[in-house]
Design brief:
mainly alpha; about 400 residues; 2 domains; about 75% helix
Amino acid sequence: MKKSNLLPRFGLHSVLILLVLWSVLPFLWTIQTSIKFTRDVAAKTPVLWGYETTGNAYRNFWLDEKKLEHSLWFVLGFIVLIAAIAAFFGLMSRRNADGRPWLLAWMGLVGVHLLVIAEDIQIWPTFWYLAVMALVAYLAYSRDWPAKNWFIGGAMFTLWFGLWRFPRAWATEDTYDFLINSIVVTVLTMLISLSIGLLAGYGLARYSGISGAVILIVALAFRALPRTAFVLPYFFGANRIDEWLRDKGISDWDFPLINFPFIDELQILDARLGIVLALVAVNQPFTIWMFRSFFMDVPKELEEAAMMDGATRLEAFRKVIIPVMWPAIIATGLFTLLLAYNEYLFVRVLAPTEWTLPVAIVSLTGGESSRTITEAAAASVSITLPIVIVIILFQKHLVKGLGAGAVKG
């Protein structure tokens, strides 16, 4: 390497290192604050090293101290165990082994565990669990699904079991319910947005008429409006719908799914349903524009060849185009996930009590005492780590998706 190139390279790498440190420093500071005692947080001179560590902030935010009978290490061990089992299924999904016996055996062990520990077996949760078990067993031996799908199902089932079992193993605060709200709102918003965005983006990419251009312009204008312009219309609209449901007596119907875990009452305001509908509406222009740009780079000859072989347009879209679009779907899904997971304004207005974690952190730990500062730091670290893990796991697909949308031809 020429000496004349060393100085520019050194300067470039120095700037990049400084930018990385500047970006990571707030998160490292938050982690440090979350494991300090209040005396170190309240010190006039910042205590950067040589301090005693504690997990009291995490314990106070997530767990009920009066009912907690075990050490915090037992809680951490449970989380690590669930993560290890899910990671095992995730790693095995990359191999050619058959995942059906693993998933069925794991679901059987979980079922026995639930029956042994259950003091009061509720009818509907038990019915739905047995129904899911029967459906999985039927699919396992009647459909020739790829082995990868079964291992992915095992990982998802493990995560579901961990979320369901955690508040029953240890007494949790209301903040755990807010975590469940965040997960449900994020997953539903992402699935609905991607489903609508895929179909709309595909149609607008393949249709070049004036109406398609009008739809794109309207979507862009809707996206350009400030978020605060939509809050009150959604609030009053949800309120009117709930009044109509109450007047008709529909909200009082005894639906079986209302008592199912993670399902709200039949209402729009102060429910997960209203938050999901609002976030889908706000996020839809983004997904439509993203998918349209990706579909513009997919040659039309792919689905035309499939249709010449006898496939319908929907079959060609599902079996030919979707596999090609997976990096773009993952990239758009991650951006949608971040938008829904970190949303504050819509949740605060549309859900006075059914909060998500961002609202809970601001509302429950918004004080200025040292204890609330450490709890806020612990909560911020707790909700950030899952997103960091998801980004790391899908980093390769994210880079591919962004690169596919940036390269033409």
